[in-house]
Specification:
12 helices; single chain; 2 domains; 8 strands
């Protein structure tokens, strides 16, 4: 099924897949991205779209197969894609090990398809356990998903998992507690759902992923790197917002002092970055409003049908 030593891109319904195989006797990385890395339809039509995390592993000549959904609200509910995953699982068996790697919605995808893909272990950063409101009512994005789609996806997750999250962020903490097979939890306090971004800004993400692949994570080096989060502009803002019940007036003063100090010594304004984040924020809010309107209209339609009957 695989073409060796060649970058291959294919599209299965609403998911773009890229893989490159260097050595069948070595492990293969199976990756799923966070929702912010979803491709647009125009991006997916390119000959070789920029699939999340593929280049990172391929440049180091590591076996990799990366999945990237098309559309912000895509939670891999396509039946054609699910059938493809089952067939793909058979083709992945010859590899010495299948290692999952996912962030946020990518962690949800790993949980859904781990059995079909034969994944042996996984590194998940702030994973979402479910989009079903009945199973995860604390997840804000459950309101944006179709109830029929989210409830139709089930999983049998039995693989050892390492999860990285912020214990002060209640949403991610509750998701992490759902993973019964979690063998190790790594806490990065005070960054909220931005754990992956914080690790990247501190220069620790790349080394962490590579070390996990070999099974030898240097926790002491990771701890030392994570101490640099106090230099992140959003760290103290998140400390103030994540756990307000434990904030005494003294703690608030300390947070305000350090946040002001960082802002004073890091006066940099990137116009392109600001415009991009503003655009992403507006798109998220527009999508949320659209989903709420659709849900209300569907409920009104059902009520009208019942009254007519």
């Amino acid at each position: 099924m695989f073409t060796l030593h060649h970058k291959t891109t294919l599209t299965v319904d609403d998911v773009v897949i890229q893989y490159q195989i260097f050595d069948m006797s070595q492990p293969i990385m199976v990756t799923f991205p966070p929702s912010c890395q979803a491709l647009t339809p125009s991006q997916a039509q390119q000959q070789h779209p920029n699939v999340w995390s593929f280049d990172f592993f391929a440049k180091q000549q590591m076996n990799v197969i990366s999945f990237n959904p098309i559309g912000d609200d895509n939670i891999y509910g396509s039946q054609a894609f699910r059938d493809f995953v089952i067939k793909l699982g058979q083709a992945l068996k010859p590899f010495s090990e299948r290692i999952g790697y996912g962030i946020s919605r990518g962690g949800y995808a790993i949980r859904q398809f781990s059995a079909d893909l034969g994944i042996d272990r996984a590194l998940l950063i702030v994973p979402i356990s479910s989009y079903d409101y009945q199973l995860a009512p604390w997840e804000p994005k459950c309101r944006e998903m179709s109830p029929e789609l989210s409830q139709s996806l089930t999983s049998d997750y039995q693989i050892p998992t390492t999860i990285i999250y912020d214990p002060l962020y209640a949403v991610d903490t509750k998701h992490a507690q759902v993973f019964d097979t979690c063998v190790e939890s790594i806490h990065l306090t005070g960054v909220g759902h931005r754990v992956a971004r914080a690790l990247a800004h501190m220069g620790a993400l790349k080394q962490l992923v590579l070390q996990y692949r070999t099974g030898q994570v240097d926790k002491l080096a990771l701890f030392r790197a994570c101490r640099q989060r106090r230099h992140l502009s959003y760290h103290f803002r998140n400390l103030k917002e994540l756990n307000p019940k434990r904030l005494t007036w003294r703690r608030r003063l300390v947070i305000a002092y350090h946040r002001t100090f960082i802002q004073k010594h890091n006066v940099k304004f990137d116009r392109r970055k600001f415009e991009l984040r503003l655009q992403q924020s507006c798109c998220k809010r527009v999508n949320t409003i659209r989903c709420l309107v659709k849900q209300k209209s569907s409920l009104m339609g059902k009520s009208l049908i019942k009254t007519k009957l």
